[in-house]
Amino acid sequence: MEWPGHGTQSRPWSTRNRQGNRDDRTLNVIEVSVPPFIASLHCDPIGNTARVLEDAVIAVAHLEAGFGQHLAPLADFLLRSESVASSKIEQIDAGWRAFGKAVAGGKASDEARSQLAAVHALLALVEISSTGPVTLPAILQAHRLLMAADPYADSPGVLRTVQNWIGGSDFSPVGAVYVPPPPELVPELMDDLMAFAARSDLPILAQAAIAHAQFESIHPFTDGNGRIGRALISAILRRRGLTRRVTVPLTSAMLADTDHYFAQLTDYRKGAADQFIGYVAGAALHASQAAEETAARLAGLPARWRDTARPRANSADETLLDNLLDVPIFNADTAQQLTGTTDASTYKALNRLTEAGILEVLSTGMRNRIWAASDILVELDVLSATIGRRTRASRSMNRDEQN
Q: 88 and 183 in one domain?
């Protein structure tokens, strides 16, 4: 499959505040990357890429269709898993327990609030994609939600008006791994990308993969580009109808080897779109297969909880157990709303389920105590680890075949 590589342009550079070392201070010309316009380009993967693409689409469709009544809690579970993995790629990792405090409205760390903001951004972008094409206003709104947790965020929800770069110095593009296009080209490039993302005549996963790589190449914001760009994959899958309720947690495959992920993006900029499509398709394949295993384990949890707790019929304990898949992290107010009983009865039920090892106390303060279903927290880690293991094993096998 032919695909144009990025061009380059020389641009003048003026160092601000005379900061950095001598190389920073004397820099006066930079080479910026200029992505091609792609709105009308054709995308027809062939050979092994086409085969992986077909396998991935089947796996995603099977995940979407296969879990009946357990699909609703699975959808929420996968969306959180995808958002948190995306944050981890950006070195933002609060841990599931700290993240759980943020989910339930408790006092949380900056990292946990940032991860929760990533959930809100992904959810907003996916939901709006259920009703129509991904638009620039939707991207900007998702970015505002993402950056809401950062009081020092620079221009949330606004396309950048300054030159940015990836890697190298903090003060100039000296030694940068990648220098995106200059800010004056960003609006037109984003309009072109949105036109590409709105098309319905392209293979779905291929379209999502290229849209993500193009977004990362444009790097339209001063911060948050990676998380919004990966959310764009899920948004396109939803817009094209490949997913209707679930979010494929394919970012965990990228997290398994971030150096390889970034190298794939670099190769895309050289014209290797077919290769990047195969990479994203493989991530979707491994993620969907692992998520099916997770779904089966989640479906079996209520029966296991009942065997462990042996709740009385129509008791507060039984009601809480019946709702744990849908509401795995909650505070006392939510627990009482679920049980519909008094504070005393609710707290007794919570204490019994905690003693049984079904619930775990995330926040031990007298006010705003927070509980979580321990097994579900474990499953979040298991899912990410399983996707990573499948991804690494597949890469190793491919290398062996090439040798």
A: yes
Residues 75 and 154 in one domain: yes
User: Tell me, what's the pLDDT at 69?
Assistant: 47
User: Is residue 76 pLDDT above 70, yes or no?
Assistant: yes
Same structural domain for residues 282 and 306? Answer: no
Same domain membership, residue 113 and residue 30? yes
Please report, for the domain that includes residue 351, its CATH number: 1.10.10.10
Residue ranges of the annotated binding site for ATP are 223-230
Binding site members: 223-230
Q: Write the CA distances from 42 to 78, 203, 242, integer angstroms.
A: 31, 10, 20
Count of Cβ atoms closer than 10 Å to residue 368 Cβ? 14
Structure tokens at 254: 């990228």
Q: Which of 396, 388, 284, 237 is nearest to 52 (CA)?
A: 284
Rounded to two decimals, the pTM is 0.94
Name the one residue in this structure whose structure tokens are 């599931």.
Answer: 96
CB 139 within 8 A of CB 131: no
pLDDT in tens, 264-296: 999 999 999 999 999 999 999 999 999 999 988
Averaged pLDDT for residues 308-336: 94
pLDDT at 194 over 60: yes
Domain membership of residue 385 (yes or no) is no
Is 58 in the same domain as 202?
yes
The domain of 147 spans: 7-293
Q: Is residue 366 part of a domain?
A: yes
Are 140 and 60 part of one and the same domain?
Answer: yes
| Maximum separation of any 2 CA atoms in the chain, in Å | 76
Q: How many domains does the chain have?
A: 2
In a domain, 402, yes or no: no
Active site positions, annotated: 219
Together in a domain, 232 and 354: no
- 156 within domain boundaries: yes
Other Cβ atoms less than 10 A from the Cβ of 314: the count is 8
